[in-house]
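Subgroup meeting minutes
Present: P.N., E.W., G.H.
Scribe: E.W.

1. P.N. recapped why we're keeping a running log of single-chain structure predictions: easier to compare across weeks, and new members can see raw inputs and outputs side by side.
2. G.H. added today's entry (210 aa).
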Amino acid sequence: MLDIFVADEQTLVRDGIAELIGKVPQFNVIARFSDGHGLLSALADLVPNVVVASLNLPSLNGVDLAKRILRSHPLVRVFLILRPQDEVHAAVLEDAGICGAVELGSNVSELERIIKTGSRSRPALCTNLEDRLRRAGEHLTLTDIHLTPREREILQLIAEGNTNREIARILRIGPATVKTHRDHLKEKLGVRETAGLTRHALKLRLIRSE
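Output recorded in log:
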């Protein structure tokens, strides 16, 4: 089950998006917000798996909201809702760590696809946005690597400097299991040393550079 925050300034849009998402099995909308600052404040008590926010939120736009969320909660996946007239650039989405984007008016199946695909570490756009980027000669390539939630968790802990034994204690699993995950991550990501794993953690926004 994915717990989801929804944010949009307009009540009808916000509630409409939440109702559509709520119809999808394994999606659970746990809070709705009219602005980005309210959403950030709520993170002190409740952290979702996914945030779906409009680009043009008042006071704090969706791109800057994503950056703020990911600084303190790097495992949250952030998706943007754009109006047809909104400009979109791949570099801006990548820099903010956006996992996907959909145009307002897309059907629920496309929204479901984008959230599920983006939550598996592969960025996703609705068909209209893909076409717009293609015409502009741009592509969204946050990562082509597919990591499981457990792999992402262990990668973050490794990048934060934890040893196998420390990770085992935190996750309540055996050190040998952690070593197996570490070896699989090195193979999957094509690196040999911990420094290479750390670079990928930075790329995936699991940790932030100082």
